[in-house]
Amino acid sequence: MANSAKTGVLFFYIILFSCINAFAQQNVGFMAPEEIREQQIKAKFQEIDTDKDGFITPDEMEAEKEKFFNRLDKDQNGLLDAEEMKADNTPMSEEADKDKDQVVTPEEADAQFKKYLNEVDTDKDGKVSEDEYTDYWKLRIKF
Ligand SMILES: [Ca+2]
Ligand SMILES: [Ca+2]
Ligand SMILES: [Ca+2]
Question: Ligand 2 centre and the CA of 69: distance in Å?
C-alpha cells in the first residue's frame, strides 16, 4: 500500500517534470528569435563602434557605409544593381535608391547613411548609443 503510493507520487513528479520541461523548451523556442536578433544587433553595434567608446560617431558611420557598399557591390563596379541590392537583409539599399532606377550610386548611399544617422540618433547628440541603435533596428531588420 505504502509502496504503491510512493510509486504513484514518483510518477506524478516524473510527469510534472516532463510537462514543465516541455513547456520550458517551447518557451525557449518561442523567445529565442527575438533574443538572437537583439544579440545580433548588439554584435553589429560593437563591430561599427571600432574605438569601443560605446557610441557610433559620424566617422565610424562613414566607415560602415564604405564597408556596407563594398560588401554588396559584388562585381566592384562602384554601383549596386538590383541583384546586389537583394543580398541586403536591411531596407537600407532599397531606401537609398531614391530615383528608383534599381541602382544605388555612392551619392545615394552617402545621402542614405546621413539620413540614417540622423534618424537613429534620437536624442540628437550627434552620436549613436547602443540603446538608440538597438531600438531602431529591432523594428526594421529582416531575418
Ligand atoms: Ca565609437
Ligand atoms: Ca555593382
Ligand atoms: Ca544619440
Answer: 9
Cβ(38)–Cβ(138) under 8 Å?
A: yes
Ligand nearest to the CA of 73: 2
pLDDT digits (tens, 9 = 90+) for 31-86: 578 888 899 999 999 999 999 999 999 999 999 999 999 999 999 999 999 999 99
Q: How far is the CA of 10 from the centre of ligand 1 (A)?
A: 57
Q: How confident is the model over 99-111, as pLDDT tens digits?
A: 999 999 999 999 9
DSSP 68-109: HHHHH-TT-SSSB-HHHHHT-SSSHHHHH-TT-SS-B-HHHH
Centre of ligand 2 to C-alpha 83, Å, is 9
Write the CB contacts of 32 (distance below 8 Å, at least 6 apart in sequence): none
**Can you list the domains of the chain with their CATH numbers?**
34-140 (1.10.238.10)
CA 69, chain centre distance (Å): 18
